[in-house]
C-alpha cells in the first residue's frame, strides 16, 4: 500500500514537472522566435537597401534616357522645320526676283536677253563679283550689262564656255566705263561710272558732258554709249553732287536702284555691236 502511494506521488510529480517544463519551453521558444524574427527582419532590410537603391537609379536612368531621346527628336524636328522655312523663303525671294525681271523685260531697249542663275559667290569677293551659269555657248558677249531686282547691278567680265564672271557696280576697283544718263527735267546729262564709294555705299559718276543743273532725286539710267550699248536700264537716283577744287569737274553720287547682295537670278542685256 505504501509502495502504491509512493508510485502515485512519483507519477504526479513527473506530470507536474513535465507540465512546468513544457510551459517554460513554450515561453522561451516564443521569445527566441520573436528575437529571431526581429533579426531576420533587420537583415532583410539591410539586404534590400542596395537593391532598392539600384532600382531607383535604374528608374532615374530610364527617365533621363527617355528625356534625352525626346530632346534629340525635338532638335531634329526643329532643324527640319528651320530648313524647310529657309528653303521656302529662298524660293519666295527667287520668285520675286524673277517677277521683277519679267516686269523689266518688256521695258528694256535691247534685242538680246539671256536669263541666268547665280551659281557661285565667295564671301571674300561678295561685293566685287559673282558667277552665273551662262557663257559663250549660251550667247554671252562682252558688251552685255547685267540686271537684277529692277535695275543695273554690273557688267559681263570673264566669259567661259558655260559660265561668266559678273563685275558688280559695288566693286570699288571696277574699271569698266559704263555710260549713264542723268535726267534733270527735260535735260539729259551724260557721264561715266568711275567707281564706288564703299564708305557711303554710293556709285560715283563723273566726266559729265554738260554743266546743266543736277538735283538730288534725278533719275539715272544707262546711256548706251561706248562698249555697253544697252540704253535706259535703271541705275539709281542722284544723292549729291560735289565739285572739284577748280570747279571744272563735278562728281555725282548715286544711290543704286537694285541691291545685289542677295541676287539669285539675273538677266544679261545687250545689242549687237
From TrEMBL:
<dbReference type="Pfam" id="PF04085">
    <property type="entry name" value="MreC"/>
</dbReference>
<feature type="coiled-coil region">
    <location>
        <begin position="64"/>
        <end position="111"/>
    </location>
</feature>
<feature type="domain" description="Rod shape-determining protein MreC beta-barrel core">
    <location>
        <begin position="118"/>
        <end position="267"/>
    </location>
</feature>
<dbReference type="InterPro" id="IPR055342">
    <property type="entry name" value="MreC_beta-barrel_core"/>
</dbReference>
<comment type="similarity">
    <text>Belongs to the MreC family.</text>
</comment>
<dbReference type="InterPro" id="IPR042175">
    <property type="entry name" value="Cell/Rod_MreC_2"/>
</dbReference>
<protein>
    <recommendedName>
        <fullName>Cell shape-determining protein MreC</fullName>
    </recommendedName>
</protein>
<dbReference type="InterPro" id="IPR007221">
    <property type="entry name" value="MreC"/>
</dbReference>
<keyword id="KW-0133">Cell shape</keyword>
<keyword id="KW-0175">Coiled coil</keyword>
<dbReference type="InterPro" id="IPR042177">
    <property type="entry name" value="Cell/Rod_1"/>
</dbReference>
<comment type="function">
    <text>Involved in formation and maintenance of cell shape.</text>
</comment>
Amino acid at each position: 500500500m505504501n509502495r502504491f502511494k509512493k508510485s502515485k506521488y512519483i507519477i504526479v510529480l513527473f506530470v507536474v514537472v513535465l507540465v512546468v517544463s513544457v510551459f517554460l519551453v513554450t515561453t522561451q521558444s516564443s521569445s527566441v522566435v520573436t528575437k529571431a524574427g526581429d533579426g531576420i527582419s533587420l537583415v532583410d532590410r539591410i539586404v534590400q537597401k542596395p537593391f532598392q537603391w539600384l532600382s531607383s537609379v535604374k528608374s532615374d536612368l530610364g527617365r533621363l534616357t527617355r528625356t534625352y531621346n525626346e530632346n534629340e527628336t525635338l532638335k531634329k524636328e526643329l532643324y527640319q522645320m528651320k530648313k524647310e522655312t529657309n528653303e521656302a523663303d529662298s524660293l519666295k525671294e527667287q520668285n520675286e526676283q524673277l517677277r521683277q525681271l519679267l516686269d523689266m523685260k518688256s521695258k528694256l531697249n535691247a534685242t538680246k536677253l539671256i536669263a541666268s542663275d547665280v551659281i557661285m559667290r565667295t564671301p571674300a569677293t561678295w561685293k566685287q563679283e559673282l558667277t552665273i551659269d551662262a557663257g559663250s555657248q549660251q550667247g554671252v558677249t562682252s558688251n552685255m550689262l547685267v540686271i537684277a531686282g529692277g535695275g543695273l547691278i554690273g557688267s559681263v567680265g570673264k566669259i567661259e564656255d558655260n559660265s561668266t564672271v559678273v563685275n558688280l557696280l559695288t566693286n570699288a576697283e571696277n574699271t569698266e566705263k559704263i555710260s549713264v544718263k542723268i535726267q534733270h527735267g527735260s535735260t539729259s546729262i551724260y557721264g561715266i561710272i568711275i567707281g564706288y564709294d564703299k564708305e557711303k555705299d554710293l556709285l560715283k559718276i563723273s566726266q559729265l558732258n554738260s554743266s546743266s543743273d543736277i538735283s538730288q532725286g534725278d533719275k539715272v539710267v544707262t546711256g548706251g554709249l561706248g562698249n555697253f550699248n544697252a540704253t535706259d536700264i535703271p541705275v539709281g537716283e542722284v544723292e549729291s553732287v560735289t565739285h572739284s577744287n577748280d570747279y571744272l569737274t563735278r562728281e555725282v553720287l548715286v544711290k543704286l536702284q537694285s541691291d545685289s547682295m542677295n541676287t539669285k537670278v539675273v538677266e544679261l542685256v545687250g545689242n549687237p555691236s
